[in-house]
Specification:
16% helix, molybdenum, 4 domains, MoeA_linker/N, binds molybdate ion, binds ligand LQZAQKY5, Molybdopterin biosynthesis moea protein, domain 2, alpha/beta, Molybdenum Cofactor Biosythetic Enzyme, Chain A, Molybdopterin biosynthesis moeA protein, domain 3, metal ion binding, elongated, 6-stranded mixed β-sheet, single chain, 5-stranded mixed β-sheet, MoaB/Mog-like_dom_sf, transferase, 425 residues
């Protein structure tokens, strides 16, 4: 049996970052940056005001107070966006709005609340500290600084950082296109009438959605039947890029037909493929796995058909590989250490992946409460369903918001244990 880590490494090794293309900022969210984005200028580009108020010489206001206010002539009015740099002599001030460049002579801003708000002259009731409310040039970044590195999965703040340095177009990796093929004679389309023994195909929907959530495009095919020759022809066409509904694809995911049954169609179809191996992996669920490349080089992930097994296999083996195809530096889900408020037995010799739900988030303590390192707040989790890790529990899988990892040498999880949880949302 392969260890979980060995199979994860083999799956990850199938994906090299895809070629790049250029996109505008509107299309950048969720893409992976393929260039370093630097700022040509210092940010902010010039010293500017953090407050609506008055730009002053701080020395003019030493000792100013409500009892001893100081009056200055107002010699300019500076809205945000102005290019003016008026001379502010001693004894004078400029009215200034938030974001407007601070005139060269001034060295502090007095917020309007501490004045009479005058426009000819202004009476000031406080002594500002030197530099008060002045945002210095280069406080955010110096000219030439790296703002967003290559390999970053772009979120809203990254897009905004690129916009703020004037980078309107970005070089990103191409979005992977992934074929999802579900197999099994017993499967029918959702909503179709069911004869005894039949069930709706849910895995192709599960996996296509998971592919899309992972930042790739999915082409959902199936369900296809248990004839190995038919499936082989389909996979060959996908690999050659000639399957009409799909065109060229960067990876293929199949579900079902990989264990030791008499009709295990994926295994039968790919048995003579030199670069595809069917191996048991020491993980529960998700033990039977097929993995490799077809003759034209397309990576294929042959996942077990049990719905929870398919989902767990996608998370453990496929998602990181798709992230790598996208060029991401960080390919893993975020994890958190959680306290277990539950107890269950686990199979010896296999890492168990248990769908869990958070029953008490760590931030129940309150976002406005200081973290006490002594109590070390952690989320609390239970099994998503008392049925636990049963790999057929397709409806209850939807209750899970995390996958807890029970190490290979553990045979029972007890209340109060700490487990690493892959966070699904
Ligand atoms: N004798 C043994 N039997 C099994 C073993 C074993 O080691 N020895 N392993 C078990 C494990 S573990 C798993 S996991 C499954 C994997 O089997 P397959 O990948 O061959 O999956 P199927 O037999 O095709 O299907 C299993 C199960 O899942 C349902 N299914 C399949 N596809 C879908 C779909 N698209 N949507 C919804 N449900 C689906 C299918 O109807 C079966 O109930 O093998 C065990 N057996
Ligand atoms: O490994 Mo199977 O995936 O236990 O259900």
């Amino acid at each position: 049996m392969r260890t979980l880590a060995e199979h994860r490494a083999a799956a990850l090794a199938l994906g090299a970052p895809l070629p790049t293309e250029e996109v505008g900022l509107d299309d950048a969210l969720g893409r992976v940056l393929a260039q370093d984005v630097r700022t040509a200028d210092a940010l902010p580009r010039w010293a500017n005001s953090a407050m609506d108020g008055y730009a002053v010489h701080q020395a003019d206001l030493v000792g100013a107070s409500a009892e001893h206010p100081v009056t200055l002539w107002v010699v300019a009015d500076l809205p945000a966006g102005t290019s003016a740099d008026p001379r502010i002599d001693r004894g004078t001030a400029a009215r200034i709005m938030t974001g407007a460049p601070v005139p060269s002579g001034a060295d502090a801003i007095v917020p309007v609340e501490h004045t009479d708000g005058g426009t000819i002259s202004v009476t000031v009731r406080v002594e500002p500290a030197p530099g008060a409310h002045v945002r210095g040039a280069g406080e955010d970044a110096a000219a030439g600084d790296l703002v967003v590195p290559a390999g970053t999965l772009l979120g809203p703040a990254h897009v905004s950082a690129c916009a703020s340095v004037g980078q309107a177009r970005l070089v990103v990796h191409r979005r992977p296109r992934v074929a999802v093929v579900s197999t099994g004679d017993e499967l029918v389309a959702p909503g179709e009438p069911l004869a005894r023994g039949q069930l709706p195909d849910s895995n192709s929907w599960l996996l296509a959605a998971a592919v899309r959530e992972a930042g790739a495009d999915a082409v959902r095919i199936g369900p296809v039947g248990d004839d190995p020759a038919d499936l082989r022809a389909l996979l060959d066409a996908l690999d050659a890029g000639t399957y009409p509904q799909a065109g060229p694809v960067d990876a293929i995911i199949t579900s079902g037909g990989v264990s030791v049954g008499a009709y295990d169609v994926v295994k039968a179809a790919l048995l003579d493929e030199p670069d595809v191996a069917f191996v048991p992996v020491a993980v529960q669920p998700g033990k039977p796995q097929g993995l490799g490349r077809l003759v034209h080089g397309t990576p294929v992930f042959a996942l077990p058909g049990n719905p929870v097994s398919s989902f767990v296999s996608f998370e453990l083996f496929v998602r990181p590989a798709l992230r790598r195809l996208q060029g991401a530096t960080e390919v893993e889900r975020p994890t958190v250490v959680a306290t277990v408020d539950d107890a269950w037995r686990t199979p010896p010799g296999r890492t168990q992946i248990m769908p869990v739900r958070v029953v008490a988030p760590a931030d129940d303590l309150g976002l406005d409460t200081a973290v006490d390192p002594a109590t070390n707040p952690r989320p609390t989790v239970r099994r998503a369903t008392p049925g636990g890790s049963g790999s057929h529990l397709v409806a209850r899988l939807a209750l899970a918001d995390g996958l807890a990892v029970v190490p290979v040498d553990v045979t029972a999880v007890e209340r109060g244990d700490l487990l690493t949880v892959l966070r699904l949302r």
